[in-house]
Amino acid sequence: MKKFLNQLKFDGKRLFLRNPQYLFFVLAMPIGFYILFTKVMTMGSASEMVTFARSYMGSMIVYSIVIGALFSLAALMQHDRQVGLVQTLRLTPNGTKYYYASLLTLMGLLNALSALAIMLVAVIVNHVALSVGTGLGVLIIAVLGSIPLMTLGVLYSRIQSVELLNVLSNLTSFPLAIISGLWWPLSLLPNWVQAIGKVTPTYLTNHLLTRFLAGNALPTRDMMGIAGWAVGMLILLFALTAWQNMTKVVIHRGSTQETPSVQ
Amino acid sequence: MTNPIITLDHVAFDYGRKPVLRDVDLTVQPGEIIGLVGPNGAGKTTLLNLIQGILPDAAGITIFGGQPGNPTAKAATGSMLQGNLKLPRVRVSELISLIGAQYPHALPTNEVLTLTNLTAQANQSINTLSGGQLRRVTFACAIVHQPQLLFLDEPTVGMDAQARQEFWALIERMRTRHVTVIITSHYLEEIQHVADRIAILTQGRFAYLGSWDELQDAHNGGQISFTAPLAPTAFAHLPGVSAVTATTDHITLTSTDTDLTVQSLVPFFSDLHHFTVTRQSLETIYLDLLKEDDQNEEISQPAKV
Q1: Side-chain-facing half-sphere of A204: CA atoms under 13 Å
Q2: How far, in Å, CA of B303 to CA of A87, rounded?
């Protein structure tokens, strides 16, 4: 346990406490958007705005998770791999188990923290009524809904080029946010886009949150969908790792001398 | 005789169709320092990766009595990778402490910082260190658990002359503690001074494996330089002399056998001044071996029509 906590402390400092970019993009930006769309650019009647302030909270929680997974986590893990930290740990008796356990735990905690911060802003700025039970439920849904996105972040971290990762993260996160209705209502989009949007993990998590915040029963379809995405992403991750090992190309250990590396 | 720490028995490895190692044999005894040299792409890093279990299919390799990557080997081996652990937003002491925490008998972080002359940088962000300091941090991570076997891949790249000198002094301390060390480096002069045995890897196999003295004995060439009131042509036909070069004040004989050439110079000694004999360095022998190896390779491969 001590080794795990050591690793968690190490990762917590470099990923969160000493990382202003994380604070800005994953915390401040979704909160900024939330205030902008619910307080500054108001549309509709007062009662509609109350409902919107409540549901939009869920959208921004999911948006925060997307940015954290596809930008912060993916870039951190890619860099760790490239400078040889992962290889250094792999050569120790403990291997990389504490490293991966720490990052997954930390991201879970940070996602919960983002959700908590957005809920607090919703309560303070928009006077959204939230019980402790509802708040806890939101945290649980947010953390579970983040699993497919976190796995996608880990998958992306295996790309070797920093530039390619950056392009891919942008090309995934922003279209994903749009087609899954995180920024504006899905009904504004063409039917075929809506059909695609409704099967994305971001839509499914957001839909779960919206239903939960409205006091409705949680749709089994959404939960099964998230589980399906999580399993699918994990299978993809294991398949990629196995393929890289099989083709003997995962030799990057902070070295640029041996060229056949595609991780 | 004690059990060897590493045994390589006819080791071969390829990346798909590209052969990297061909029939490599090596036995490393405890406390030995082996200098592994070779041109870029010769397979040095691949060989180290195989021994450490980083690459799969390490048939023919035994380390600490087991397969590469066995638990005993992992606990007793330190590895200084070719790249530096340049992690943003991490302090020097934090990284050393993290790596130390992976082992059961790690030294206290402060002791490692003192040993590697990094105490002043303990609280500095790794990202802000110079190239030489970064190398020392990577070295500190490799020795934090007092390994019995140490792999050093290009350890002194980026270090200035003083830092290099301090680094090799540390390796000498490792020798007194009976630590086995395998070093790859492009600084052949350093390898020549520190290694008990030199392994020259080229075209995927060892072109030479043995001590520096044996290598030098087998390559008795060198240069003889002096001033003399005689024409340079007077020395051209002496035994062993392969070339004569002359400047306004010096005559230099390049000899394939310096002992023989010096003996034949005895009758001229009364006319010779500022006499020096320089034997071949590891670098020149190494380059000769590479040249020979390239020629042999060309002969063994028929020309494509």
Answers
A1: 22
A2: 42
Residues contacting A68, CB < 8 A, separation 6+: A22, A26, A107, A110, A111, A114, A146, A153
For residue B119, give the DSSP letter. G
Question: Residue A16 to residues A66, A174, A190: CA-CA distances in angstroms?
Answer: 16, 22, 38
At A171 the pLDDT is 95
What does the alpha-carbon distance between residue B8 and residue B60 come to, in Å, rounded to a whole number? 6
- pLDDT tens for B154-202 read 898 888 888 888 899 989 989 999 999 999 988 888 888 899 999 999 8
DSSP readout, B123-139? TSBGGG--HHHHHHHHH
Tokens at B108, concatenated = 């206290």
* Residue A40 binned pLDDT confidence (cut-offs 50, 70, 90): confident
pLDDT value of position B55: 84
The rounded distance, in Å, linking the Cα atoms of A157 and A192 is: 31
Tell me how far apart the alpha carbons of residues A204 and A175 are, in angstroms, rounded to a whole number: 15
CA B192 – CA B82 distance, rounded (Å): 20
Contact call for residues A69 and A103 (beta carbons, < 8 A)? no
Residues of B with CB under 8 A from a CB of A: 15-16, 18, 40-41, 45-46, 49, 52, 54-57, 71, 74-75, 77, 79, 81-90, 94, 97-99, 101-104, 141, 153
Q: What is the chain A residue with the closest CA to B153? A: A255
Q: Which of B46, B84, B102 has the CB atom closest to A93's CB atom?
A: B102
| Helical (H) or strand (E) element with B210 | strand B205-210
Facing residues of B33 across strands? B181
A256 pLDDT more than 60:
no
Q: Which residue of A has its CA nearest to B99?
A: A89
Q: Would you say B73 and B64 are in contact if contact means Cβ atoms under 8 Å apart?
A: yes
Residue A248 in this model has a pLDDT that exceeds 60: no
Q: Residue A207 has what pLDDT?
A: 94
Beta strands B205-210; B197-202: pairing state: antiparallel
* pLDDT at res. A242: 83
Q: Which domains does chain B have, with CATH numbers?
A: 6-216 (3.40.50.300), 220-279 (3.30.70)
C-alpha closest to that of A26 among A110, A132, A134: A110
| CA dihedral sign of residues A132, A133, A134, A137 | positive
Which pLDDT belongs to residue B300?
58
Are the beta carbons of B87 and A79 separated by less than 8 Å? Answer: yes
Rounded to whole angstroms, the Cα distance separating B294 from B277 reads 29
Q: What is the pLDDT of residues B256-270, one digit of tens each?
A: 888 899 999 999 988
CA A39 – CA A86 distance, rounded (Å): 45
| Cα separations in angstroms, A81 against A58, A252, B140, B154, B226 | 33, 8, 19, 19, 56
